[in-house]
Structure formats: C-alpha cells, structure tokens
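Hi R.,

Here's the chain you asked about this morning:
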Amino acid sequence: MKRIVVTGATGFIGRHCLPILEQNGYEIHAFSTHPHADAKNSLTHWHKIDLFDQKSLKALMAELNPSHLLHLAWYVETGKFYNSSKNYRWVQASLDLLLDFLEYGGQRVAMAGSCAEYDWRYSYCIEGLTPMKPNTVYGACKYALQEMFSKLIDKREVSGVWGRIFFLYGPYEHPARLVSSVIRSLLKNRTADCSHGNQIRDFLFVKDVADAFVALLESNITGPVNIVSGRPCPLKKIIFKIAEKMKRPDLIRLGVLETPADDPELLAGDSTRLFREVGWQPKYGLDQGIEETINWWRQNRSVSKKR
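And here is the predicted structure, written out as tokens:
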C-alpha cells in the first residue's frame, strides 16, 4: 500500500489532488489546520495539525511511516505573501517535515516550487538553464528550500521532484486573483477594470496542476520540473474569453489599472521535461477550464464574502 502525506490538503491545489490520489490507490493522510467539510464522506484520513508544531509533527510522522509525501502547504495570502517574513518560517517548517519523512522511511517526495525562483529578465524559463535570481522573499525562500531539498535527498535511498508552478486558475481560487475577479465583476454586472492585458503568461487550470503533481510523484523524474500548459497567451485573451462566455464584453475595461515597472512582457516556462520526460499532458483547454470556473463561481457567489 502506498501511504501518502499531503500538506495543504484544503488549499487551492491540494483539494484537487485528493480525488486523483484516491483513484490511484493511495492511502491518503491529509494534513491541515482547518477541518474539512466533507471529511466524513471521504476515503482520506484527516489530521488537524500545525506544521510549526515540530514535536507533534514528528510524533505523527513516526506513527504513519508514509512512503510518499506531497508538500504543498505554504503562506500564500494574496497581496501579502511575496515579501512576507513568514516565508522564512515556512522554509524551516518544510525542512522539519522533510527530515521527519526521511527518518521514518519515506521513499518518494514531491514539493511545490514556483516560477518566482527564476530570473524573470529571461522571460522564458528552462530548468537547469535559466539563471535563478528571485527578486522577492517568497522566490528566494522557495529557491533556498529547493537547494537544501536536493542536497538532503542526494545520497539517500529516496527520490524527490520539485514542481515549479507558474500561473493557475480555477475553482476555489482567491476572489482577488485575475480570473476570479473578472468573473465576479461580470456576475455582479460591474465593469472589470484590468491592465492593458498584453502581458504574455502561461495559465494552467488548477485540476491540471493537481494532476501534474500526482504524475510527478508517480514518475521517476528528479529535480525541478516546470508545471505549465505549454501554451502561453496574452492576458487579454483570457479576459475576453471570460467575457465571451458570460456575454458581457461591454464590461471589460483594459488599460485602467497600472502595471508595475518591472512586470515582464513575457513570462513562461519550458514544458519539455513535463511533457516528454514525465509524459504528462493537460486535460483541460482554456475553453473548458474557463467554463468550469465560471460555473463554480455562479454556484458559490457567497465564497468571496467569507474571505
């Protein structure tokens, strides 16, 4: 039996990983600081735990002896996380988790990294080739953890992979993020104020991001792997795709919001490792992903009032 610990299990990506892991035959132990509403109806074993409580964490890992670890938890509060000092604490908590996993017989681990680790001046990011020069505390902490992660597992009988997330959207996204904010504005018949929208980015539907992480976990690939769609496009294409599906292009206002001076015109990741070496491909195109996200927000308009 493959026994896996999943951190950040109620988060944006983590909640979408659980059903895939269940289908793939894992005994799942989900770590979260918040109780899960559907816990009683799930095959997942839920553990309410604070990852900063090292003593309790160690005891639980000793009890479970997991063979696999999927570490997604981090501080990602929209508008605050990029330069928060909380990132430093998450480096330590992640190292404690990894060390406990290794001590109690762990075999395969996948951790979530970020495109923020790269030097964005290079625009198109390739694993092992593009320089690593993060310009935020978040990016620096993720990169520092990746370096320590690779050294820790290098000479042990365990393998690990580091999934570098670029841009994503979908159900349960924070309401202030681009896709969610445009959808919510149009649902309220309000104008959606946006930047010029010419920035080119690679957006991937969150269920595909979750599926890619599980594929990484089940592969024998090691080291950093970009998690991307392989189809970067201008932001305005995504914005107008939403407006087209909601039949409200009249509410879109491009060029109203200013863009930061250091905002790159292009920021995308090479998909070669993910597509060719892992053998993974996205299941959702932009049309289907946007459609599903719009439908979710229509059914969950009250979510934004709680955040």
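One quick note: The radius of gyration is 19 Å.

Cheers,
M.
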